[in-house]
C-alpha cells in the first residue's frame, strides 16, 4: 500500500471518527445568560434559566420573515432536588439545547442564600465543562431570584447585560474595580481562609409589574430597573447579614477592590456643609504585627482625590485649607473602614481575607492561631485604618459660588 | 506579387520522392524545377507557399518561402529585385553560387544546405530558400519575419500603480527585446531551443551568466531537453512538464507577464523561460513567500511596501480560512464569541433551514460559478453577470431565507481577498484548499483546522522548486534573507551582489 493511499485512508477514518460530533448549529441552542436560585417547596430548589431568544433581541432576522416577533428573553423555572435533576428536567421543558458558556449572571434569592446555601450548585457548576467561572454572582436583597429575573429592562434588551453594565460602570455605588465572580466566590469559600461576599441587587420598584413586554412601553423606567445595593456577608456558603452602601465601600477599600469611587457627602473641616470628591488610583496595603495573641493589622490606603462638589466656606485656592480638606477625607475613609470591620466582627466573619494574609505572610504565627482564628479576629485583633489621599485636582472651578455671597455680605 | 507556378502533370518529374517521411535522406536536386516540386510535395498545395522559377536569367534559379512567416515585401525588395537587376546587367552565364549570394541584399549570413530537412526547417523558421540551376546546394536566406500581431500593451493581469506598464506579448523576439532593454549587460544570455515534435515551438532560456545558480540552470536545461511532447501552445504546458514531480496544489514555478519581474528574478540568480506564443514567462526556482511579493514592492518606499506585504499575508489567511473559521466558531466553539455577537449571529440563523456547513459550501460554489462565468463569458455581457451575481448572492438569497446575512459578508470578504494575490495560480491553490479546510472545520472544528494547517506546513516544507526548498528562507532558516520576507528592508541595507552598485553610488553621492 502506497504512502499516499495510506494517508488518504487515515484522513477518511478521521472524518468518520469525528463525524461532526459536538457540532451544534446556533439556532438549536438556547443561550442561557442568567440563572437564579430560590428555595422552593418540599425541600426543592427552584432554578430559573433566563434564555435569550435571538429572534427577539436582534434587530434583523436572517431567514425568511417570521410570523410574530418574540421577546428578547424568557425565563424558565424548574423545581428539583439537585442540579443534575434540574438540567435533566430542563431538557424536557425547553425546546432547545441549553447552552451554558454564556451565563453571565447568577442570582441567589435571599431565602435560598440564608437557608440552603450556595454549595448546592457549586459542584455541578465546577464539574460541567461548559460552564465558565467568569459569572458575576449576586444576591437578591429581601427578594426572590425569580422576581429579579422577571423583568424586561429598558435600554438593554437582555437584562443580564444591563446588570453587568451597572457593575462595570465606573461610578457604580461601590466603585468596584471588577465584579465578584463565581471564581472568586469558590476560591474564597473553599480555598482561601476567608469568608465570601457576593454583590447585592434589588429591584428599584419591586411591586411594579415588569414581566410583560407592555411594561417596557411605560415611560417610567424605574419599574424595569435594578439597583446595586450593599454587599451581603456570607459565613461559609450561607448569607448572614447585609452591609450598607457605606460599609460596602469600606469593604472595597480594605480589600483593594476599589477602582474609582465617589464620596458624596464628606463633612467640611469647619463643620457646616459637605463636599464630594472622586477617589482615583486607590491602592491598599496591609501590614500585620503579631504580638503574642494580640494582632494589629494596619490597612494603609493611598490614592488621589478630585473635588467634584464643594459646599464648604473655605477657599480651595488656599493650600492650608486643602490640607484640612485632605484630613477630612482621610478621616471619613478611616471611619468607613472601621465601620465595616465592626460589622464583620459582629457577624463573626472575615470577608477581608485577613486570615489569608496572615497565613501567607506570617505562617509561623498563623499556626498558633489558625484553629480559633475567628475568636482571635473578634477579640484580639485590632484593625488600624490609615488613609493618605492627595487632592490632585479641584475640577474646573477655583472659586465656589458658595463663597461668593458671603464675601459680599 | 511573384507568379506562382503550379505543379502540372506535364512538368511533374519522376525523380521526386512522393509522400516523403524523412527529409534527411533527400538530397538537393540539380534541377531547380524538381526542387520546387519536391517542396510542394512536402508542404502540400498551400496558399501560403510561394514558389518561383526563373529560367530567363544568366543563372536560372528558383525560390520558395512561406509568406505567413517571411515578410513578402522584404523578399521582393531584398532578394527578387537584386537578382532581376543582376540578370539584366550581366549576360555571361555564371552558375557560381557565391556570386549569386553576393548580389543578395541581406545582412545575415546565408547558409548553404545539402538536404531537404534543413530546407524545410529553414522555411519554418521564416527563411527564403534559393536553388541555383546545376548546383547541389540550397541557399537558406534569413529575411525579416512577418510583423507580430499584438503590440506591447499595458499588463492585463499583474497590474501596478507605480512601475513599468508594458507587458510581455506573444512574440518571442519582442519579449527578448523587452528584457534586453532592461538589462544592457553582455552577461545576459538567451539560450534557444525547440520543443514539441509537431509544433517546433521556440523556447528561450534566459539568465545572467555569472549570477545564475548553475545547478538550477543545468536542471532546467536538462528537463527542457528531455521534454517529449507533441505540442507546446503556452508556457503553462512547459511549466507542468519541467516542475519537480510532486503532487502539490501550490505552483512551484512562477509565471509572470511583467518584463521587470523577469529581469528582477534573473538578476537575483534565477532562470527564466520564454515560450514563443505565450505572453507569460516562467521563473524558477521560487519560494512560497515570493508569491506575496510583487515588483512594485521595490518601487514604493520600503515602509509602505512592508505594510502592503503584511496586508497581502492577511488576505491570504482570510481567503484560506475565513469560511472555515466561521463554521468552526458557530457550530463548535460558540463560547468563544462575545455574548452580543453570538446573539446577533444566532438571530440571523433563526429560520435558516441549512446547517452552516451547507450554507458556506452553497455560497462558495455560487461564487466560484460566478467567477468562472465572469472569465469565460463574452465581454459585452459582463455587466449582466455582475448584476445577477450581486442580487443573487447579496440580497435575494438572504431574503429568501436560504442563507444568513453574516454568511454574505464571509463569502464576499473571502472573494475579495482571493483577488489580492498577484499570482493567479497561487490564489487558485488557496481557492481549492479553502474547500478542504471547510470540510475539516465542519467535521472537527478548530481541531480539524489545526490538523489541516499542520499537514499543510509539513507538505509545504517537503515541496521543492527545481531542487530548491519551497519554504526557504523560513525553512531552512536563513536569517540574512529574512529581510525580504515579510518586511521589505530599505534597498541600501541589502548586501547582495545586485545592490553593491547601489552602495557605491550612495557613497559617491554622499561624498
TrEMBL record, chain A:
Taxon lineage: Bacteria, Bacillati, Bacillota, Bacilli, Bacillales
Gene Ontology BP, a term: spore germination
Keywords in alphabetical order: Germination, Lipoprotein, Membrane, Palmitate, Signal
Family matches, as NCBIfam families: spore_ger_x_C (TIGR02887)
GO cellular component term of the entry, any: membrane
Ranges of residues in domain Spore germination GerAC-like C-terminal: 230-395
Name of a matching Pfam family: Spore_GerAC
Stated family: Belongs to the GerABKC lipoprotein family.
Name of the protein this chain belongs to: Uncharacterized protein
UniProtKB/TrEMBL annotation, chain B:
Highest rank taxon of the organism: Bacteria
Membrane topology: Multi-pass membrane protein
GO annotation, cellular component aspect: plasma membrane
Positions of transmembrane segments: 311-332, 352-370, 382-400, 406-426, 433-458
Gene Ontology biological process terms in this record: spore germination
Keyword Transmembrane: yes
Keyword entries, A-Z: Membrane, Transmembrane, Transmembrane helix
Pfam families for the chain: GerA (PF03323)
Localisation per UniProt entry: Cell membrane; Membrane
Family that this chain belongs to: Belongs to the GerABKA family.
Listed name of the protein: Spore gernimation protein KA
Species of the source: Pontibacillus yanchengensis Y32
